[in-house]
Amino acid sequence: MSLLSFHDVHALYGQARILNGVSFDIGAGERVALVGRNGVGKTTVVNTLCGVTRIERGHVAIRGKAMRDLQRYTAAQNGISVVLQGRGIITNLTVEENLLLGAATGRRGPWSLASVKQLFPILEERKASLGLALSGGQQQMLAIGRALMANPDLLILDEPSEGLAPVIVDELAELLVRLGNDGMGILLIEQSVGLIRRVAERFYVLSKGAVAASGPLADIGAEEFQQHIAI
Ligand SMILES: Nc1ncnc2c1ncn2[C@@H]1O[C@H](COP(=O)(O)OP(=O)(O)OP(=O)(O)O)[C@@H](O)[C@H]1O
What we know:
binds adenosine-5'-triphosphate; ATP binding
């Protein structure tokens, strides 16, 4: 079943059209990478899902249903969690308060304060610390933990490896593969070829606001793939 699809989406910030007919599809338990050079519109895909842009043509569908009026909360209410670029930690709330924000939709499932802290024990150790006191790696764990608290069917991560030590990126890769194997869809927006290759089964390349190439990762050579995302 399709969890999230964009159908020929043209989207604008004000008068600036950034997406020029984006189409892609992610099914349950699929691990998909969305890649492209800096500034091609990858984050704008997330912003469009979250109702930040104006859709001029085309539509976004969640579980096959066209969403007419996308708002910031639409994705979360429909089982899609987003880990924003820059992590979006509320710095003047504690770690535990940040985590509880993720549970606001009330969706049931395997993820709770207890299971998230079991996955990331540092979040239990630092539960009373303010978000701003965490290191970059800890903030990323908090952002992912908060996204899991919503018990999503699809997890979208925008540049999650940014600023992380290689050992933490390795752990992140293992976690995302495991979540996918447990049935969660993963949409990974990334520049790190290593992380993409370890996590994703399929890819879409965005160029000039549209999908320029797509297919299984196994079918594309390392050099050709690198060219698509070279900065
Ligand atoms: N709020 C905004 N208003 C107007 N233009 C914007 C806004 N946000 C982004 N843009 C522009 O939209 C284009 C696409 O930006 P976007 O952040 O989606 O790219 P990206 O592919 O995610 O890039 P990066 O890899 O650098 O994160 C850029 O030209 C950017 O300047």
